[in-house]
Design goal:
- The protein is α/β, with parallel strands linked by helices.
- It has a single domain, classed as Glutaredoxin (3-Layer(aba) Sandwich), CATH 3.40.30.10.
- The protein contains four helices and five strands; from the N terminus they run E-H-E-H-E-H-E-E-H.
- Strands 1-3-2-4-5 form a five-stranded mixed beta sheet.
- The chain is globular and about 35 Å long.
- The chain starts with a strand and ends with a helix.
- GO terms for molecular function: protein-disulfide reductase activity.
- InterPro entries: Thioredoxin, Thioredoxin-like_sf, Thioredoxin_CS, Thioredoxin_domain.
Length: 117
């Protein structure tokens, strides 16, 4: 799965596409954001359908950035069922993002098993 660019008009629908959504708040002028992009592309390929990865340009979509209180780029927010559960500000190693997704994927899997009993 490649990164999908979202905007003010599409964001609400985009976050309904999967249980876990990783949102990268970025800007074209931000050097760390440019370094983060290939890391998230790789994660998208590795994790497939486990998570939706969205990019939101804060200059093009200021309403979403304001809604989530984004003040610095890059800011990555993990949403579970559309609600923020984790926030990372600044560039981190790819493993940090992978671990974050795995943590909430495991929680989701445990909850699904619990609901079946």
């Amino acid at each position: 799965m490649s990164l999908k660019t979202s905007n003010d008009a599409e964001f609400s629908e985009d976050i309904r596409q999967s249980e876990l959504t990783l949102v990268d708040f970025t800007a074209a002028w931000c050097p760390p954001c440019k370094r983060l992009n290939p890391l998230l592309e790789e994660l998208g390929q590795e994790l497939g359908e486990r998570v939706t990865i969205l990019k939101v340009d804060v200059d093009a979509s200021p309403h979403i950035a304001a809604r989530f209180g984004v003040m610095s780029m890059p800011t990555v927010i993990l949403l579970k069922d559309g609600e923020p559960v984790e926030r990372l500000v600044g560039l981190r190693p790819k493993e940090t993002y992978r671990s974050l997704i795995a943590k909430y994927s495991a929680v989701a899997a445990r909850q699904a098993v619990g609901h079946q009993s």
